[in-house]
Design brief:
The chain is 43% helix and 17% strand. The protein has helices spanning 2-9, 11-17, 25-43, 47-60, 68-81, 85-98, 121-131, 174-182, 199-202, 205-208, 218-224, 305-316, 335-357, 362-369, 375-387; strands spanning 136-141, 144-148, 154-159, 162-166, 189-193, 213-216, 228-231, 234-236, 247-248, 253-257, 260-266, 275-279, 284-286, 324-326, 333-334. Zinc ion is lined by residues 5, 8-9, 152, 198, 200-201, 289, 328-329.
Length: 390
């Protein structure tokens, strides 16, 4: 699931690095050549060549390879740009059925490339399959349940007169999410907290925003008003105004939901709009994508990792041993697991800063730290502190 997240959150990274090529270098090489040519054609707006190269790249990729759905998506959008509806739907259907990153097809309804086929019966029917998925539910504590399978972890707080959701998953999965919620309560969804402005977490916000109060960080509102960069060169339009938070959470806040105090706290790290949520009586926290086991809890662009770690640490002080911690994508954890990750992050930062002070380059630093830290952590912090001048 960690990898799954990297795929979602840093699409171009996954495609460029292609770190998980399980079978032969030769196959990996073949798809890469086609993919590069396809990218060139996309930029040059040569749709025919874009379609042909992406189709070849998709066919050359071994089954199960993590980059397959990305390349299939490209093949689909190239076909759609040419008005080839059946071919476009076929690629998307393949991505859906192979289920490596099935919900990636959720971007298509917003992607201008699919404009000409958006209303077509087969396209609409395929999106409907996402809405009929069966999502998993699990009671975590008190009034709080976890709902899985919509593209990210959704938490539902079942109050006496309404349901509060933390995140929504992808847009086309919203009917499935509604079905899952209806299985937990006959109350309406009255509130939504958006942990951060990524499609896999807020895909249903525009629709739910029409009926529920939306809580979000001002950074999320700002991001919703901008085009969404899904992949290199693939921009989706800004979110509909109904998605925009009605209540801005700019500093540590306590809201009372169904009689329970709920802490909503900015923990900017992964994006410019991260919020973490703690249901104080149910004793469940949702940290969004600021907690991803095995990842340094943030992505390039974050300039103050230490500030973030301090803020998260202080938030954990409000919790206890029994608190169930939900991250954006993985199985639930506890406070000790998050603290352990904070410790490793801090140790890695110290290690990288010392290396920079000694004038070591990235390669030397990665080699020297290889037995203690994953190379991508070292590379990540090295980048941050090089940009900041050490
Ligand atoms: Zn995510």
């Amino acid at each position: 699931m960690g990898v799954r997240h990297l795929v979602v959150g840093a699409v171009s990274w996954a495609v460029v690095c292609g770190s998980a090529a399980p079978s032969g270098a030769q196959e990996a090489e073949a798809w890469r050549v086609h993919f590069a040519a396809g990218e060139e054609a996309r930029v040059a707006e040569q749709h025919e060549r874009y379609a042909a190269e992406m189709a070849s790249a998709a066919e050359a990729l071994p089954e199960g390879q993590l980059n397959r759905p990305f390349v299939q998506y490209h093949a689909a959008r190239a076909a759609a740009l040419l008005g080839r509806e059946r071919e476009a739907v076929r690629w998307l259907t393949m991505a859906w059925e192979e289920d490596i990153e099935a919900l990636m097809i959720s971007f298509a309804p917003f992607d201008p490339a699919f404009e000409t086929i958006k209303e077509s019966r087969d396209f609409v029917a395929l999106m409907g399959r996402a809405g009929r998925m069966s999502l998993g539910t699990r009671h975590l504590g008190g009034r709080v349940h976890l709902i899985t399978g919509a593209g990210s972890n959704v938490v539902a707080h079942i109050g006496p007169d309404g349901v509060l959701l933390v995140d929504t998953g992808y847009g086309p999965a919203l009917p499935a999410l509604r079905t899952a919620v209806a299985g937990l309560s006959d109350q309406p969804i009255t509130a939504l907290v958006v942990t951060h402005p990524h499609e896999d977490h807020m895909g249903g916000a525009a629709e739910l925003g029409g009926e529920a109060v939306v809580y979000g960080h001002p950074g999320t509102t700002a991001a919703m008003k901008e085009p969404y960069a899904f992949m290199e060169g693939v921009e989706l339009p800004p979110k509909a105004p109904t998605a925009h938070p009605d209540i801005a959470i700019e500093r540590d806040t306590t809201i009372v939901v169904g009689g329970e105090a709920v802490r909503v706290v900015p923990t900017l790290a992964h994006t410019t709009g991260d919020l973490s949520v703690y249901f104080t009586e149910s004793n469940v926290a949702h940290l969004g994508d600021t907690y991803l086991a095995g990842n340094p809890m943030m992505f390039p662009g974050q300039s103050d990792p230490e500030g973030f770690l301090d803020r998260l640490d202080a938030f954990l002080d409000e919790m206890n041993e029994g608190t169930v911690v939900v991250g954006g994508h993985e199985d639930v954890a506890d406070v000790a697991a998050v603290r352990a990750q904070i410790d490793v992050s801090r140790a890695c930062i110290t290690f990288v800063k010392d290396a920079l002070a000694d004038g070591r380059n990235l390669e030397e630093t990665a080699r020297a730290g290889a037995d203690r830290f994953p190379p991508q952590w070292i590379a990540f912090f090295y980048g941050v502190y090089t940009q900041r001048g050490g």
